[in-house]
Amino acid sequence: MATKRKSATSPARKLAARIAAGRARIGIIGLGYVGLPLACLFAEKGFPVTGFDIDTAKTGKLAQGRSYIRHIPGKRIAPLVKAGTLSASSDFAQLKRMDAIIICVPTPLSRQRDPDLSYVANTAREIGRHLQKGQLIVLESSTYPGTTDEVVKPELEARGLKSGRDFFLAYSPEREDPGNEQYGTAAIPKVVGGDGADALELALALYNAAVVKTVPASSPATAEAVKLTENIFRSVNIALVNELKVIFDAMGIDVWEVIDAAKTKPFGFMPFYPGPGLGGHCIPIDPFYLTWKAREFGIATRFIELAGEINTAMPRYVIGRLTEALSDRAGKAVKGARILIVGLAYKKNVDDMRESPALTLIDLLEELGAKVDYHDPIITSVKPSREHPHLAGRRSVALSPANLKRADAVLIVTDHDSIDYRAIGQGARLILDTRNRMARAGWRGRNVIKA
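The chain above was modelled as a monomer; its predicted structure follows.
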């Protein structure tokens, strides 16, 4: 029996034509570190883009052509707003006007380290209230395999429209690396999994209009698994070098020297680097999404959980090294000591402090009775956070000779390029360096201890 050909006026064909012509109206929900660069990219390609966010401070700034994320300057946003290709709104009724809607909302963990999909579920429910025939919906938020089918799809179908017939549903994991000048959004291939052939074809067409390459996956669940695999790979390898750091330190061996020598091997080795703990919106969180989902199948994720335990323990290891150094070098206890933490962001050169180990270190030190200040040239005050609300509002202190001299120890947690490390070396009595930054800055004084 011959297969019935699609009508030239079918919803899929009409949307494909609008995408090909660059006229598809794109709505992006969630204007953070993932959604905003994606919105800018599509707008730069000439698509009419509306960014949606419940935070009216964000939408208000965008409407004025201003930015609130350091590595996405206002000079990139303002011309797009002026040209009319980029707008922002907190009125979700406007979703009715969109041809494609991309979801870029947070997927944190609960206090019990279970997936918190409330942002995804609430967003899908809101889209469902305004869903129109022929729309393409793409989830980009990092999550466990099955979320698109089990959480998003039922919310969208709740009012009678059906995926694959009336609208089209896909998953494409975000792969942003904030502050990475080599690999911006357009230069990173997009993995795409669709709920049916039409959804896959449309999502591929949409992203092909903006990024260097697309990689089709057989299903949304497969694409969801790709994202978790990428970040679990990083988490496990970071845990490995963190454990090696502890072992080699006990042996009097510099792990940084070991890694630098090992990476000269042209095959079979990939360098990862130790640190004071994991931070950011992906690596400390995503592995536990798979751990949680695996329990449904009666499978224990021992390797993943062990890596999480090692990485989570690193702040306490750093505190232990600091305690030893204060006692040996200054004859002081942590209690009553003045500690200056350098760097609050979870990684260098960004203004993002989500899950930053610096926040945990501040808490641990103050529990031990230390007096803690921090310096960060990018994050001038601590933003509210779920895990550390009591730190909100604290302000960065200057990296002045007086502040360096007053500190019993300086603890380098985040190695922003804009920090004057030579000034730290000259002015601080004791430096605990968790990033090997002093050595890379050419300072090898006796006041530096690697931690």
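The longest strand covers residues 190-194.
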